[in-house]
Amino acid sequence: LAEKVQKPSDTEAITAANTITAAESGTRYVLNVAAAKIQTLPTPAAGLEYWFYVGATEPTGTHTVVTASSANIIVGNISSPEDAAGSVATVTDADTISFVASKAVHGDFAHVWSDGTNWYLDGMCKVQDGITTTQAD
């Protein structure tokens, strides 16, 4: 297998709502606007992966990363050094990842990878509950 080399074009500053495509797999999105923006993941496919970072402009509205179908298929964890246990519990089978207004800070991140069925989540936030997950109703 050829190893993918990241290029500058694989980084995108987000200042608006965005529907992400499978062709953008490997992209690192920098959420660099204060107002809340929604990032919609594509339908899961094996090997797709994306990174989301809080940029220098920290959110005063809650940024969200959501699944395309509200299927509650995000599983995984977000860690925080502020939590005494070192881990912020996330909802199993979530639909939404939230970068919480006035809590998420520059450098907080979430990474998602798909096996074709689920989105597997890992990430880190400085402030406990700076990043949360929820299920669709």
| DSSP helical segment count | 0
Q: Residue ranges: pLDDT <50 for 5 or more in a row?
A: none
Residue share in helix: under 10%
The overall strand count is 11
> Tell me about the biggest sheet?
6 strands, mixed
Q: What is the subunit arrangement here?
A: single chain
Distance between the termini: 41 Å
Any idea what the shape is? globular
Q: What Rg is obtained from the alpha carbons, in whole angstroms?
A: 14 Å
Mean pLDDT: 90
How would you summarize what this structure contains?
The chain has strands at residues 11-14, 18-19, 28-31, 38-40, 49-54, 63-66, 74-79, 96-99, 109-114, 119-124, 131-134.
Describe this structure in words.
With 137 residues, the chain is mainly beta. It has strands at 11-14, 18-19, 28-31, 38-40, 49-54, 63-66, 74-79, 96-99, 109-114, 119-124, 131-134. The strands form two sheets. It has a six-stranded mixed sheet with strand order 1-3-5-9-10-7, with no helix packed on it. Strand 9 and strand 10 form a beta hairpin.
SSE arrangement:
Elements: E1 11-14, E2 18-19, E3 28-31, E4 38-40, E5 49-54, E6 63-66, E7 74-79, E8 96-99, E9 109-114, E10 119-124, E11 131-134
Parallel strand pairs: 1-3, 2-4, 3-5, 4-6, 7-10
Antiparallel strand pairs: 5-9, 6-8, 8-11, 9-10
